[in-house]
Design a protein that fits this description.
It is built from two helices and eleven strands; from the N terminus they run αβββββββββββα. It is an alpha+beta fold. Strand 7 and strand 8 form a beta hairpin.
């Protein structure tokens, strides 16, 4: 009886270790594939949004980062450069754009608002700085400005 119980515990342990290793390999694969995707799309990219949320906690598919060139719409519409299928996002939620060598963000009259460093965005465009935290719906990003980092 004890031998059967010991065998069952041994197989459960082996299964748990296998699942742990599989999850580590999956995380490495996702990280590498996202880095390659960002590298391929960033060629002339000046900035990007880095996801803060854990993707496994979301009920919709997202990338770890999104490249921002000179102008990017953020929203639930598939025409947006940063497409997020969050039900709390408006179709055209916000816009990030480059003007005079600096990036700005403006809310596009979204229903639930856009937030910069925890504060709701005003009606006018606001200048972004490297490492600013942006929130839309249930999603939060860190804004990474490669132009600012080069200077």
């Amino acid at each position: 009886m004890y031998e059967i119980l010991a065998d069952v515990v041994k197989y459960i342990f082996v299964f748990v270790v296998y699942m742990f290793i599989l999850s580590i390999v999956r995380l490495i694969y996702l990280d590498i594939s996202d880095a390659k995707r960002r590298e391929a799309t960033s060629g002339a990219g000046f900035a990007y949004l880095k996801l803060v949320n854990l993707r496994r906690n979301l009920k919709f598919k997202m990338h770890e980062s999104y490249s921002i060139r000179e102008d990017a719409l953020i929203g639930r519409s598939k025409r947006c450069q940063v497409y997020i299928d969050d039900p709390y996002m408006s179709k055209n939620h916000a816009r990030i754009f480059l003007r005079d060598g600096a990036f700005y963000i403006e809310d596009l009259d979204s229903t639930n608002g856009s937030f910069l460093n925890g504060r709701r965005l005003p009606k006018h465009a606001v200048r972004l700085k490297d490492s600013d935290k942006l929130s839309f719906g249930n999603i939060s990003f860190i804004f990474v400005d490669n132009l600012e980092a080069e200077n």
